[in-house]
Amino acid sequence: MEMAPDALLACIAAVQEATSSEALVLATRQLAAAGHPEAAPVLVEVLGFNNPGAAVAAVDGLIALGARAVEALLQLDPQNYGARAWAVRALAGIGDVRGLELLVDALGSDVAASVRRAAARGLGSLQLEQLPAAERSAIAERCLAALEAATSDGEWVVRYAVAVGLEGLAPHLEPSSSRWQRAEASLAQLSETLAGNPEVVRLRANLALIRLRQP
After folding, report:
1. H or E element that contains 200
2. What is the DSSP letter of 153?
3. Could you report how far apart the first and last alpha carbons of the chain are, in Å?
4. In whole angstroms, what separates CA 201 from the centre of its chain?
5. Which of 81, 104, 116, 153 is the most buried (most CB within 10 A)?
6. What is the predicted pLDDT for the residue at 2?
7. What CATH code is assigned to 95-215?
8. How is the chain split into domains, by residue range?
9. How many CB atoms sit inside 10 A of residue 185's CB?
10. HSE-up of residue 180 (Cα within 13 Å, Cβ side)
């Protein structure tokens, strides 16, 4: 049941008028719980407030709003790095294809491993099922190319997420196609015993390979 307009306005005002970090976190949680699309721009604004607790609550609320939050997320000031980093997490959780460009860019160039990790997972969980075949194919190629490039990421947590992302992307790749083979090759690379490649990454890549090869 959607929150009444007056109650929604009160929640928004509480966020905008919060006078302490704790008050902002509480107000953001209440606004996120409203589940109202008009809360999205305010929740996005919170992402840039340099308050991790409030940002986490805002991300949870934005993910819950799903596609209704994407437009507000894409209007974010690209110069606000902190807000952009949280937005990547939200878009990864939502899985809307409109977030593709931001996710690809974040995986390839963001300085924070946690943001690259979220982007890798997000690229493997985009909702492509309802798209026309040609568009689905083009987006799957963008995702695959970005994940392939990230198999050599310097941080193991990102490579782990790449394995997860490749497994998630696989249903959108034609079995036995060149793209499928590229995904397998990337997972095989991640499963190798190499310097700096911890067992947890190898095991996760092997698990993805096993699942992909199951009939």
Report:
1. helix 199-213
2. -
3. 43
4. 20
5. 116
6. 60
7. 1.25.10.10
8. 1-94, 95-215
9. 12
10. 10
